[in-house]
Amino acid sequence: MAPETTAARYRLLGPVRLGERTPSAAKLRVVAATLLIRAGDVVSADCLIEELWGEHPPRTATTTLHVYVSQLRKLLEPAAGGPIVTRAPGYVMQVGPDEVDLTRFETLRRDGRAALQRRDHAEAARLLRAATALWSGPPLADIPHGPVLMSAAARLQELQLDALEHLFAAELQLGHHREIIAELLPLADEHQLRERLHAQLMLALHRSGRQADALRVFGRVRRRLADELGTDPGADLRELHQRILRFDPGLDWRGGGGARPPEPIVWLPRPVADFVGRDAELARAVALLGDGGPRTARVLSIAGKAGVGKTAFVLALAHRLSDRFRDGRLFVSLRSSEGAPLDAAQSVQRLLRAFPPGAGHDLGGDFGGDLDGLLVTLQRVISGRRLLIVLDDVVTERQIRGILAATGECTVLITGRRILTAIEGARHVVLPVLDQAAAYELLAATGGERVAADRRAAAHIARQCGYLPLALRVAGASLAMRPQWTAATLARRLTDEPARLSLLTVGDIDVRSNLLAGYREVSPAAQRAMRLLGVAPAQDFAAWTAAALLGAAADDAEQAITELVHAQLLEHRSVVGRPGRFGFHVLLRALAVELLAEEPADVRAAAVERWCRTATGLARHADALLTPGRALELLGDPAPLAPDTAAGVVGDEPLRWFDLEAAGLVTAVRRAHAAGLWPLVWRLADALSGYFQISAGWDDWGEVIGLALDAARRAGNGTAEAVAELSLGELAWQRRQVPEATAAFERAHSWARSSGCRPVEAHSLIGLADVSLERGLGDQARRLYAQGLILCRADGDVRGATDALRGLALVELRRGERDAALHRFAECGRAADQLGDPRWREFAHRVADRIRREPGRGGLAAAIEMRPGVWMFGAA
């Protein structure tokens, strides 16, 4: 018989899945499902064509079918010898009996029925339970049905119901009537004309002491039969009704010579209907709980941010483990109806109330408030029982420490936002958000056909929801209740961050309220931190950003951040190459931005200014290490940082620091500009220019230059405007936008001449020389480089002199004067040594070596490195 614990590769009992490489195209899944339904038999091409296109196939149907089969072969088995074999007049799917869930189901169902016939009820229940567990939804779901698949789906649904009815028959024989009520109720409601299911439900209710409910079930099915078929229930159901009316003792369970087993205590909600994904996390949880041996975890904590689906996960896990806990399964929420967390005594009271009267206590539900007395009662109630207890929405270890001590050998599943690390011996599973495939599946389940019709919009919705299950479920329901909207409409509206949380509400489910609950449970200091961190860059940020925004010492900021991380309100994003970074989930960031508005305007402005001042100081320090001498030091420094402070943050790898921080620093320039902090705008923009020049970050460079120019003009600061014009010219020159570069350098030069600012004049001359050289005006370039070199040497500007010498060397090379060019590059290298810039020194040596290796070339090569990493092409 097939293994009952490992997943089948091919799944038909629910959405069609073909292992890890399930195609997204529905028609490919139709072909695969048709072949799998008839696995081992030849399916003709004509049959497949009819299944795909019905009575009106396209002219290219045969060719298209060949393409589909070829694509399936590549997906299912790239190497030779795959499962799809061509055999006239069509194809055959050759798979092993354990590879298809349908084959497993049929084997388990057959063996289970046989066990039931020989009155081995326990074995029958085990086999039939395994058979029905293979189902994950309606058979052959999420694909269109032609004649073959439509017939197969109907047959499979009948087989599923047959297996369930035989399973319930075995469970009733074992005395598990209380436990199957929760399963029978929805099935009877779904299949209202199926009399055997209703008979089993009536018997289970009667044996559980719920005669009135059993009689109501009969009344409901009798009315339905009369209304829809104009007939009465069958003789068996009518007889059962009469026996219940007279309390026939023959209906009572008689097992083991008439002795009744201890009644199981079951207080466990049904699994969430649209629960998706989580296979890896469920497998890990089951593995941590083990098989009941000495190394088995007794306490499993399931943590995750608000809305990540902790309750849905724990219910799925609890039902999966139900066979291990025949004495009972209990579920209690440790929050009041108003959402407040229960204290320790209230938590024990809530758990005791889940036990029915007569389960071992005689307090009639009035348990008082003495914690020690409550725990003694709990121990007495639990004594001798091996239970699965679910404590949902735990806030602190203090709430449940007494319960854990009193529950003996019971297994306890805990859910909560925080990882409860102080619980001795607990194992932990932290739930992430869903992956893309599961997110789409959940959206499609709740949003219907409009989601399936526009996968691109669905992907956008999932991203805007941050793949958070609660948000995805609400988004899908929100779409379902608005028939006038398409998926693209919802996707477009969710793009608006300020309005996003307001859209994610339906009925009494409000994503914002769910997120706010966690925020209200942290300390006032952590709440303030979350509000002010709404200013931080959206992607991620470092601890120094948090300290600056909070106006706090590093240790105090770290304490607030740590509390937010533990409360699942902030994420620690330590990935390869980006250590010590933090960031918000997209919806928690939207909440933080909303909460930021609660702060007074002057507090918000002060936070922005502190951050931008710190960012400017750190960027200047990193720029001085990365491009020594580049900054002209004409703009003043409104935010000097202690050298030790800057060095401790930036370290000795300025390029790596800029790589990590660049996106956030651009955000800081934007925030400074929006706040009217003009000197910080142009100073930070200038500090970024060296990095963007090296990394070719042209788009970001262009944005910050534009903001710097605007800030300088608003403030009437000609020096800042001229320095920004130099950067603008450099950017245009790197982009080979010669007219724009010329105009920017000329504006800077004109201002410098009129104001007597020799550093700007020198650098504008060098910039104009670069433009001239690129235009082929060698003599003009030589003159401009020489003028710039004179000014730089007069002012002690080693960086400018290094740049001018580089230009003169290139002019000599263009003129065919190799020796003169080598002499100039040697000077350039010595100046770079004086500057302490290894990049420029290596550049000078690299180009000189190339000239020496190519003695036959008299002028510039077809491609020449004009600056470190900046090349000019087609210059020969």
How would you characterize this protein structure?
The protein is an alpha/beta fold. It is built from 38 helices and 18 strands. The chain is elongated. Residues 1-5, 256-261 and 361-366 have low confidence and may be disordered.
**How would a textbook summarize the main sheet?**
6 strands, parallel
Q: Which bin fits the share of residues in helices?
A: 55-70%
How would you describe the shape?
elongated
Estimated share of beta-strand residues: 5-15%
Q: Which stretches of 5+ consecutive residues score pLDDT under 50? A: 1-5, 256-261, 361-366
Q: Give Rg in angstroms.
A: 37 Å
* Major beta sheet, strand line-up: 6-8-9-10-7-11
Secondary structure class reads alpha/beta
Give the termini separation.
Answer: 77 Å
Name a few traits of the molecule:
alpha/beta, 18 strands, 38 helices, 59% helix, 876 residues, disordered N terminus, six-stranded parallel beta sheet, three-stranded antiparallel beta sheet
